[in-house]
Amino acid sequence: MVRAWYLDEKLVSQNKSDPCLTEENVTLDDLLKIGVEYFEFDADEYENNEEYNSLKKKRGYSYQDNITINRCSMPNYDEMTERFFKEHIHQDEEIRFILDGCGYFDVRDTNDRWIRVEVTKNDLLVLPPGIYHRFAIDNSDYIKVIRLFQGEPVWTAFFRPADEFEERKNYTTKYYT
Ligand code: KMT
């Protein structure tokens, strides 16, 4: 089950891979209000899971691959994890289904505060295009995920400030009331 909470930025600056857990919990409804969607599927049985396959079909998630983030298995680990943790947007949805391990997606709320979303096995998270976010591996330094995408994948990240992008403008129009 996914957990989410407001971040204490001072704690993060000491160690980005620490949960930096606070008492300020965030619910799935709160996440939905900023366009972040959560689903749960059995990561050991997902291939024949009707709901998983119908979600993929309904959303047009035709592309799928796996990545594992871990110092030993990722050749450019330092560069990649640094990039993931730098605040950015994408022009498309970011869809990640966690097969194993643990990590944190930090997303900005409409007051520009960081919400930390802990993802573990069975969690599927969808970040909308244009949301400022970043990713940190947790202290165990291991996560294995499926990346889904609509059509040909584009992994380009636009680092903040990226307010001029159409997708960012669309995002703020939709969620900043
Ligand atoms: C991204 O684009 O920020 C990522 O793919 C994060 C790593 S997936 C757990």
Structure description:
The structure is a single chain. The protein contains 5 helices and 10 strands; from the N terminus they run βααβαβαβββββββα. The strands form 2 sheets. Strands 1, 2, 3, 5, 6, 7, 8 and 9 form an 8-stranded antiparallel sheet that branches. A two-stranded antiparallel sheet has the order 4-10. The radius of gyration is 16 Å and the shape is globular. The protein is an alpha+beta fold and 177 residues long. A hairpin with a 5-residue loop joins strand 5 (94-108) and strand 6. The protein has helices at 9-14, 28-33, 50-59, 77-85, 166-175, and strands at residues 3-6, 37-40, 63-69, 88-89, 94-108, 114-120, 123-127, 133-137, 143-149, 158-159. Bound molecules: 4-(methylsulfanyl)-2-oxobutanoic acid. 4-(methylsulfanyl)-2-oxobutanoic acid binds at residues 84, 94, 96, 103, 135, 143, 145, 155.
Question: Would you spell out the secondary-structure blueprint of this structure?
Answer:
Layout lengths: L2 E4 L2 H6 L13 H6 L3 E4 L9 H10 L3 E7 L7 H9 L2 E2 L4 E15 L5 E7 L2 E5 L5 E5 L5 E7 L8 E2 L6 H10 L2
Antiparallel strand pairs: 1-6, 2-7, 3-9, 4-10, 5-6, 5-7, 5-8, 5-9
This protein binds 4-(methylsulfanyl)-2-oxobutanoic acid.
Q: Tags for this entry?
A:
binds 4-(methylsulfanyl)-2-oxobutanoic acid; 5 helices; two-stranded antiparallel ribbon; 23% helix; 10 strands; globular; single chain; alpha+beta; 177 residues
